[in-house]
Structure formats: C-alpha cells, structure tokens
Design brief:
This protein has ten helices and seven strands. By secondary structure, it is an alpha+beta fold.
Length: 277
C-alpha cells in the first residue's frame, strides 16, 4: 500500500508540479554556473574542480551548514580559495562555519602558520597547549618561558604558548592562561560554533593570531586573512558582485550576469613542513 508521501509525489508528478530543490541541489546548481566555475579556475587553475568538489562534500556532510544560504557557503569558500587553503575540517587550515542562516569564513591556526611560512621570513613558528604541571615559569616582561613537558600531571589545559623566530634572528614568545583566552572569547566571538567544535584549536589560533598581529611580519596575503577571519556576516553577495540568488523551481534555475575582472592570482598552496603539537 502506497504511503501518503508517495501518493502526494505521484500526484505532483501527474500534475507536472515542480518540486522545490534541496539546498544541496541549489548549491550544486550555483557551482555549475559558468561564471563561478571560471572564477574558481582563475584562482586555483587545474585544482578548481577538486576544490569545488570539497565544497559539496563539506556541505553535504554538515547538517548545520545546510541551514545556511548556499551562496554564503560558496562566498566563504571563495575566500579560502583566494588564500589557497583547503576547507577540510580535519586539516584545520580553514573552516566554513554557520552564523545564523549565513556561512562565514574562519582561518585555523594551521592556516596562519602556513601563510607565515609562505613569506619566507619565518625560520620557525608554532603554538601549543600547556597542560597542568608543565608550566614552571613565565615572565610577561622578559618573556622568559620555562616548560617541563615531562612534569605533566593531567590532561587539563591551563594555557597556550606561541612562538616564532624570523630568519633575521628576531624571536617572540607569548603565553596566555586559559582564563585570558576565555575572556577574549566572551568579548569578541560572535559565533560559538567553532569554539564548541574544538575549543583548543580556536584558543591556539587566538593566541597565535594576536602574536602575529602585534609582532609578526605580515604579507599582503596574511593581511587579507586577518581582515576576512571571523568578519561579521554581511548581506550575501557573489564574489563578482553580480550573481544573485533567485526563486528556484529547479536546481539548474539560476541567473548570472557579466563578471568583473579577476583579482590578482594568489600563490599556490605549498606543503611546508612544520611541527604542530
């Protein structure tokens, strides 16, 4: 015996009533736009199809993200593409996170490390959690930090330490207690989604980002990352400021207009070797 749902579907088909596409179908339809395909190809060249597939995979595997407008997801992914950072959550370079019904771009601490290494100005750079029992000494004025990793007594994180050394010999060390990080989160975090997902990763990013912003050498690419990271979500626009979302009857029903000139192509993603705790 046919279910009510199947009977309704048969009736719709019989009367040629178009079904509303899912948000996943809408996302795929937008990515099939010649304008967006060309835009990703201009940025990523031959790696564009793989990156666009990763957008679909990310969206289809995250039910919370599926509540966001598909165009906002693509716009956030475009920022990651211009920075040449993968959006796989497991890699921790960059994330696309929900903020209400819009998606926003966030860079991970590994993303900041990668961008720093690309400048060629950093000899070494790292950020770690500090566990209970490990911290022996921290002087904020002289930046003397003494950690005994063998003295760890539990899995409780008490703080986070970041460090870099430039090729010219300049060194910098910072240490934040967990309380300092929490106060910063409460004051500045607009969306708690990423913090709930991985508090320590977000905390390490916060400490590393603060250190680089104050004392690091920032390339244009890094400055763009700082500007885009956790930016308040605005009205969703296409990267070319031309593609607008419309009423969708079928997944393929979308409207595009002439695109604007392409921006300067960023450097390719380089797999640098660095030590991440």
């Amino acid at each position: 015996m046919a279910t009510t749902q199947s009977l309704k579907k048969q009736l719709q088909n019989k009367n040629n009533v178009p079904q509303q596409p899912t948000t996943l179908q809408t996302l795929k339809g937008l990515l099939a736009s010649p304008t967006l395909k060309k835009r990703f190809e201009e940025i990523l060249d031959k790696r564009a199809p793989q990156f666009m597939t990763s957008i679909v995979n990310l969206y289809s595997s995250d039910q919370t993200l599926q509540k966001c407008e598909p165009m906002s997801v693509i716009s956030a992914a475009m920022i990651a593409a211009t920075l040449d950072l993968p959006i796989d959550k497991n890699l921790g370079y960059a994330w696309i996170v929900p903020y209400g019904n819009k998606a926003q771009f966030q860079i991970g601490y590994r993303g900041y490390i990668q961008l720093a290494l690309r400048t060629g100005q950093y000899k070494s750079i790292n950020v770690i959690e500090v566990y209970e029992g490990e911290l022996k000494k921290w002087n904020r004025l002289t930046e003397e930090l003494e950690i005994d990793f063998d003295a760890r007594v539990s899995d409780a994180v008490i703080g986070y330490a970041a460090y870099f050394e430039l090729v010219n010999g300049f060194k910098k060390t910072v240490y934040w207690t967990k309380d300092q990080v929490e106060k910063h989160r409460q004051k500045y975090s607009k969306s708690g989604h990423s913090w709930k997902e991985n508090y320590d990763a977000m905390a390490m990013k916060t400490v590393l980002r603060n250190m680089l912003a104050k004392w690091g050498i920032l390339s244009i690419e890094m400055q763009n990352a700082f500007n885009e990271d956790e930016k308040e979500v605005r009205e969703v626009k296409d990267i070319t400021n031309e593609v607008q979302e419309t009423e969708y009857i079928e997944a393929e029903a979308f409207e595009v207009t002439e695109e604007q000139p392409a921006e300067e192509k960023p450097s390719t993603f380089e797999q640098e070797s660095f030590d991440i705790e």
